[in-house]
Amino acid sequence: MCSCDRHTTQPTFDEQNIQLMKSQTTILPELILSAATLSEVSIFSSKILTPFIMHRIIIMFVSFLFIDNPCFSQNANVQWQQALGGSDYDEPAAIIQSHDGGLVATGFTFSSEGDVTKNYGGADAWILKMDGEGHLQWQVTVGGSADDYAYGITETMDGGFVIAGETKSCEGNFSSNHGFSDGLIAKVDSHGKLLWTKLFGSPGNDQFNAVFENADGSLVAAGTVACHENDKKGVADFWLLKINADQTVLWSRHLGGDANDRLIGAMKSNNGYMLCGNTISSKGNAAAGYYRKTNGLIISTNAEGNVLWKKTIGGSNDDVITACSLTIDQGCLIGAITDSNDGMLYSFKQSSNIDCWLLKISAIGVMEWQTVVFDEGQDLVANTVLETIDGGYFLGGTASQRSVMMKFFQNRLMDWALLGDRKKETGKAFVEMPDSSFIMAAAGFTSDNYIRNNGFEDFYMVKMKPVNDNSYK
């Protein structure tokens, strides 16, 4: 059934994950900060080789200073900031560095003016190309009369870009729709001209979160598929789909258990693909999870999408993966929220709160280390986790509707933590640049003497570099 007449608002990335949780979770109280506020966060860490030894680290959150200075704090050097968008809601989902040294971001927009030149109706997938200083070079929307979203982007060998997302539309840039929402793949050239769009899916809700190009020009998209008649293992499964340069399907793999399995992110590895998401299944590829509780699920496949190994993470309560990335050694860095203090967290997490969880999984599925951030009511969610150029680890996300950046050296030490002072500026995606600075793409309501606000919520882009970032070396 086509859903062109439906104009529903897409839940945010964080809301989609929280909806998987089945326990009676209460909303944590909001943290109120002034520009001079310092608040402490306790972190308990343990090495897997010494599981009963814990190290307590006190982290100082330093408020971003927005009152009379565009710089975030004495711990960060803001090199530039930009707000891009129109008069309505505009929100980023992913950002990458392009081969020319610029930036490409994608997400969605409800706007039809300002920096947005066209809107097909509802939310449209939005692709933006910027130079290295954040100045907009070109932008393009992809969509129809219903809601359309982009969640992932990759640069192709010919200098173009491919996005992965979902659409509820069946006209505009699309000729048909298989169900309520379809997985979307679209290609633009190096100047932002739309070359083609392709939809894949079932009668239910389907989406792609990531897409990768192979040396032969074929593409592999990763996402979630529901209500599929063939190869269906549960209510929803992890989904890998390979198409050739002509957008013809070469193969499709549905990976999951007997219930609900939803992808959050995917990476291309030397062996094939690493898929990360959440499951409430207890059989099939998601076996070993706790019955009808949400656990994180990691599946490693070969280049043909066949399972090499799988691993569920968490305890007897809800544990939800929110971010992931591939490490240099072909392992997996995971950001999650946890409500458990048993299972993998036994004798490790002593709090009964819902806390932020950072852990490293090896290339063969063995957990190497973990850290739990006791955020004391700040509601910390990791939206990006990265291995950094200097061998450390980065966590970027949100806490009480403010942007957060943290730097770890394995699980033992945090170098810095920055917490935004102004509400409603939430860091959605982050990327490290060759000079060890970080670009943050946030959803923001920013407006002051240093940067304009175009409407409601903008693509808020900031480049910053921590000062004295050598405390762990």
Describe the 3D structure.
The termini are far apart. 1% of the residues lie in helices and 49% in strands. By secondary structure, it is mostly beta strands. The strands form six sheets. The chain has a ten-stranded mixed beta sheet with strand order 20-21-22-23-1-2-27-26-25-24.
List keywords for this structure.
473 residues; mainly beta; ten-stranded mixed β-sheet; four-stranded antiparallel β-sheet; 30 strands; 1% helix; globular
Quantity of strands, as a count: 30
Oligomer: single chain
Strand content range = over 45%
Low-confidence regions: 3-74, 469-473
Order of strands in the sheet with the most strands? 20-21-22-23-1-2-27-26-25-24
Structural class: mainly beta
Sheet with most strands: 10 strands, mixed
Number of helices: 1
How much helicity do the residues have? under 10%
Radius of gyration: 21 Å
N/C terminus separation? 58 Å
Mean pLDDT: 78
Condensed summary:
With 473 residues, the protein is mainly beta. It contains 1 helix and 30 strands. The longest helix is centred in the first third of the chain and has 6 residues, at 13-18.
Structural topology:
Blueprint: H1 13-18, E1 38-47, E2 55-63, E3 76-84, E4 90-97, E5 103-109, E6 124-130, E7 136-142, E8 148-155, E9 161-167, E10 182-188, E11 194-200, E12 207-213, E13 219-226, E14 236-243, E15 249-255, E16 261-268, E17 272-279, E18 295-302, E19 307-313, E20 319-326, E21 332-338, E22 355-361, E23 367-374, E24 381-387, E25 393-399, E26 402-409, E27 413-419, E28 425-432, E29 438-444, E30 458-466
Parallel strand pairs: 2-27
Antiparallel strand pairs: 1-2, 1-23, 3-30, 4-5, 5-6, 6-7, 8-9, 9-10, 10-11, 12-13, 13-14, 14-15, 16-17, 17-18, 18-19, 20-21, 21-22, 22-23, 24-25, 25-26, 26-27, 28-29, 29-30
